[in-house]
Amino acid sequence: AEKTKKLKPEEITQIQPQKLDITLRSGEPQSFNLTFKRAEDYPIDLYYLMDLSYSMKDDLENVKNLGTSLMLEMTKITSDFRIGFGSFVEKTVMPYISTTPAKLLNPCTGDQTCTSPFSYKNVLKLTSNGSLFNTLVGQQHISGNLDSPEGGFDAIMQVAVCGDQIGWRNVTRLLVFSTDAGFHFAGDGKLGGIVLPNDGKCHLENNIYTMSHYYDYPSIAHLVQKLSDNNIQTIFAVTEEFQPVYQELKNLIPKSAVGTLSANSSNVINLIVDAYNSLSSEVILENSKLPDGVTIAYTAHCKNGVVNEGENGRKCSNISIGDEVEFEISVTSQKCPSNGKPETINIKLPGFSEFVEVVLNFICDCDCAATGVPNSPECNKGSGTLECGACKCNEGQIGQFCECSQDEVQTNDMDANCRKDNGTDICSNNGECVCGTCICKKRENPAEVYSGKYCDCDNFNCDRSNNKLCGGHGRCECRKCICDANYTGNACECSMDSSTCLAKNGQECNGRGKCECGVCKCSDSKFQGPTCELCPTCPGVCTEHKDCVQCLAFKTGEKKDTCHQECTKYKLEKVTERERLPQPTDEPIPRAICKERDENDCWFYFTLAVQEDDTKQVHVLEKPECPAGPDIIPIVAGVVAGIVMIGLALLLIWKLLMIIHDRREFAKFEKEKMNAIWDTGENPIYKSAVTTVVNPKYEGK
Questions:
Q1: Tell me, what's the pLDDT at 321?
Q2: Could you say which DSSP state residue 445 is in?
Q3: 432 membership: H or E segment, kind and range
Q4: Residue 253: CB partners within 8 Å, gap ≥ 6?
Q5: In what residue span(s) does the Integrin beta subunit cytoplasmic domain sit (predicted)?
Q6: Domains of the chain by start residue, with CATH
Q7: pLDDT digit string (tens) for 419-474?
């Protein structure tokens, strides 16, 4: 089989049509369809822009082998892949770097050897040689600066505008911006005495940005413009600390992505692949500046039948290779251009080189103007050309039929014919007095017109109902509504059809009100609803709605299995406290306060109000009040404590009785002891224990 010839990048078409002409008539929209189909094996150019300040030292070691590894991974997506490398540090002036001679040679401290600081350096032009990438990146050395934010915006601007030096092709262009710090932007250059705004031009000499000391940092809006003009999609590979900052920046830059870079950039390949898949799966349409009076609207028909309108009509997401999406684009012109010439607008897809050229042709004159009758007798005997049934007066003539001469007209006399009721306003300020006749103004909307002899009538200043002119049930004539049949009122808002007021019993408004403009006005405030049949505060209403409220709020009750079938048109809201339940006086709609018991003997509280569309508005206390069961522990403790107390009391009583008894016995003993009579005679057996011996020698001296 013959091998399919590989197409060049410029031969690949992903969007159709590429060019078209449309013809616009004022006020009439014209539509066309635009089809996008994502191509397979579409070429990719990827430029890796890296921060080489000292904090990125460990990251540089991992990036040195990025070329071949990324080449291998990207071949799974495309067979035509090129890679380039650039680095940046900071502007080479104070206070961003130290300008002492020693620090200019080696900005790092201690024994660390670093290269001289620089703003931006294009190390490697885009190439398909991954080994060359590894070699040149391996020769790079880290540098350093003083402040934390880096000069990355200068580098991004040069990468965007220096297409020849970078080597961009007309293919998918990816810029990977790798850093672990914030960024300087327009105005920060004043710190270094730099006040000239960035000019957005290429200033690379020998692949080094030479004007960093001369031009300020670019603004975010300036970067967005240059990245968009050059179809460059940006991937911010930043550390976790600066994710919020770059997420905000991503929201300002179309077709950009943010990925979280590990501390040493070891996950950079997965980050790039994921970001590319995210960017390439989304298509966004943008148009160039529109001519004055021209508007454009988009409707996107995306995958799986998804239809986006309004601002979202510009984009489709989750588009895979081979998927086809369609955009319906409507262009409307409200007026003709001043020069009457065709205008051109371009519709492009950010991130893709293709665009659609749309040439707008304007119809400003009717075809019948070409067949006009010069000097027609109908225009005051040849004083003008009869075009499309109206006179186009020759120079010097005015009037509907060119019957007046500008030289002969007395302005004051003619203006008097254009004043209503001799007032001061000429043509009611809605027109011009030409030859004594009011010529009414034209409005931007052709459907809105002034009319009447004095331009005092119009068809757009009538009363409105439901934001519709004459309620949509009539027409506006001279600022008054002429209503259709069965409608009345200043804005035709009142329907005379009373069928909508009939209740189920056949009575008008259930006999409890009057039918006004097709709506029941209930005479008794207790009754409400479209036919005055609902009575939320009548007896039994709580019981009627109890089961539905119970199943909707607590998933219990008799209707818990058929709740969704039987309990429709309920709008339920839970409250945490009974005090938060709406009270009948809070709103003009009658509201019932209910207290019902469930099968567990728990009480639940709710309020009920019926809206005009028969929707039941229910506020229910989220926790039912259930009777508390016996608390075992206090009961047992009480019984035990009671037994102990009774025992102690009995012991005390016994002790008291014993004391009383002992005291009585002791008193009795004492009394008997006092009354006792004892015999004091000697014991015949008793012998004294004392023996007295007299010394014969003792003389008693």
A1: 82
A2: S
A3: strand 431-434
A4: 220, 223, 224, 227, 234
A5: 655-701
A6: 11-40+284-363 (2.60.40.1510), 44-281 (3.40.50.410), 464-495 (2.10.25.10), 497-538 (2.10.25.10), 541-621 (4.10.1240)
A7: 888 788 888 888 888 777 888 888 878 788 888 888 989 988 899 888 888 988 88
